[in-house]
Amino acid sequence: MTTPAAPAAPKGRLGNGQLRRQVAEYLAGHPGPCKVGEIARALAKSAGAVGNALTTLASHGEADLVPGKPIRYEANSATASAAAAITPKAPLPPKPAPAPTPATPAAPAPTPAVTPTPAAAGPVTRPNGQVYQPRSLADMADVEALRKLRDAGVPALLYGPPGTGKTSLVEAAFGDDLITVAGDGDTTAADLTGEYTQNPDGTFTFIYGPLIRAMEEGKVLFIDDATLISPAVLAVAYPAMDGRREITVKAHKGETVKAAGGFYVIAGHNPGVHGAILTEALASRFSVQVKVSTDYDLAHALKIDSRAIKAARDLAGRQASGEIGWAPQLRELLAYAKVAVILGEPAAIANLVGIAPEEDRDAVAEAVGKAFARTTVAPLALGRQL
Ligand SMILES: Nc1ncnc2c1ncn2[C@@H]1O[C@H](COP(=O)(O)OP(=O)(O)OP(=O)(O)O)[C@@H](O)[C@H]1O
Ligand SMILES: [Mg+2]
Predict the structure, then answer these.
(1) What is the dihedral of CA 339, 340, 345, 347, to 10 degrees?
(2) Whose CA is nearest to atom 15 of ligand 1?
(3) Residue 166 pairs with which residues in a beta bridge?
(4) Closest CA to 64 of 20, 37, 27, 38
(5) Mean of the pLDDT values across residues 187-196?
(6) 334 CB near ligand 1 (under 6 Å)
(7) 90-129: per-residue pLDDT in tens?
(8) Beta strands 136-137 and 140-141: pairing type?
(9) What is the DSSP letter of 108?
(10) Closest CA to 20 of 50, 43, 41, 60
(11) Residue 180 in contact with ligand 1 by CB distance below 6 A
(12) pTM
């Protein structure tokens, strides 16, 4: 049917370290610069996943990024031992096969993605090993909805308070096919496209930034806290996101870079953070905008104490009515559960109050006290000398 896979390539999905080990092995066995696509073909893996493995190896000093274009990597003195040192995890079970579809001719996808995008029904393991429980979005699993948007080339913006699950969702949806930029007020165009860096011999090499890498490798670029980035800087990415799907890298001799199939941009926005400005130009580029708020049912499913969830829910209601400015989100509820295990329930309760912004602390203390049937709850503090 299609191109035959390399004979040595194992079937099924690989654990994180395992693909890295294979890539390191390949580099060690093929001296000289190797292109991402070449390695991906040899291992029968997606260029995105192989690109990520190479980036990790290079960041650990276990492979070298060869200066210039196209993006190539080569083995260094640490590569062979890296191949041997990474303990391979047991391969993950193969993803469930997509539901059979009627034998009608498939409509061509506007933007062919590099990796297949099967429907995900159950929990998804993020690249950091944490388990993500998909939530519903447009009557399907959120991870599936995002993958569909990628296939169709429709940029999405996830917005909501800190700790509600924006990053987790993007990581669960795109796994190793993801490059993340953490935006802030100091982010420059060079942080997106790249810049010249000095070599030990005094010459300069242009090192491509995450936007260019994502474009060339057909990956997903997640611009987290995109609205903290100055609008003029963010505008550098716009030509890559619209119909042209290419950008001119002014800083590198005006070079034109075209996006490979699969390239996609998704952004995160926290409306409450000081300095976050959702400009019209940005909003109009992200045709789909998804509100992300804490799912309290998920908090129950994650076995968090229902009294803590009740307090958080009550506070969220008061926050929605404008009465207070803060309520614990999933991140704080997960932290509650962890602290309860480490330091005990009373300390975890006190900590839930202590992490609240000062102006809302009394309201939080009251809600937490009520939920746990305690008359007073003070923030976690040091006591007398023991
Ligand atoms: N659907 C989910 N299943 C399991 N855990 C989840 C889920 N969503 C979020 N979490 C957990 O909740 C916590 C907060 O999530 P995350 O870091 O993704 O929030 P965020 O919205 O990106 O926050 P911030 O705006 O501060 O970056 C993490 O510990 C994450 O593992
Ligand atoms: Mg985040």
Answers:
(1) -10
(2) 165
(3) none
(4) 27
(5) 96
(6) yes
(7) 333 343 444 444 444 444 444 444 444 444 468 999 999 9
(8) antiparallel
(9) P
(10) 50
(11) no
(12) 0.72
